[in-house]
Amino acid sequence: MKQRGRYEPGMRRELARFLMAGVVGFLIDTGMLYLMLWLGLGYFAGRAVSFLCAVWTTWQVNRRYTFTPDRRQSIWAEWWRYLTAMSVGGGVNYAAYSAVVSLLHPAPWLPLLAVAAGSIAGLLVNFATAKWWVFKRTKPITDESC
Fold first, then answer.
1. Domain boundaries, given as residue ranges, for the chain
2. pLDDT, tens digit, for every residue of 76-96?
C-alpha cells in the first residue's frame, strides 16, 4: 500500500481514536475538577487530582482502542511510561490551564474553559509521546499484517 505524504498507514485512524480518548479524558478531568472544587480543594490542587484521573482513563482507552501495546512489556511499566509521557504534555496543559484561571475572573464556567484550553495546548505533545514512546512498535507493520 502506498503511503500518502510522510504519514504512516493508520496514523489518521490513531489520531482520530486518540482524540476520542481525549474527549473521554476531558469529561473525566472536568467532572473530577468540579467535584474537587465542591469538596474545597481549589483550582490547582483539584486539577492535580482530576488530571491523574483523566490520565488513567485515557491510558485505558488508548491501550485498548488506539494503539497496540507491546505485550512483552509489563502493564505496570507501561502505566508508568504513559504517566511520564502525559506529564510532559501535562506541563503544557497545566501552564495553559493556570494562565486561564489566573487571568479570568472566577465564574461557574471557568474550570471548563481552563481545562479545555489546557487539553488543546497539550494534545500534540501527548499524541507524539504516546505513539512514538509509550506504544512504540518494535516491529514495523507490513501490508500482510494489516
1. 11-139
2. 988 999 999 999 998 999 999
Model confidence, pTM: 0.79
Q: How far apart are CA 77 and CA 81, in angstroms?
A: 6
pLDDT at 24: 97
Which of 70, 64, 84 lies closest to 135 in space, CA to CA?
Answer: 70
CA distances from 85 to 12, 41, 79, 141 (A): 20, 26, 10, 23
pLDDT < 70 regions, the chain: 1-9, 69, 137-146
Cα–Cα–Cα angle for 103, 107, 113, rounded to 5 degrees:
65
User: Amino acid identity of 42?
Assistant: G
How far apart, in whole angstroms, are the C-alpha atoms of residue 25 and residue 50?
10
SS3 category, 5: coil
How far is the C-alpha of 133 from the C-alpha of 114, rounded, in Å?
Answer: 28
Which grid coordinates are listed for 34? 468540579
Torsion sign over Cα 86, 89, 92, 97: negative
CA atoms lying within 13 Å on the CB side of residue 64: 8
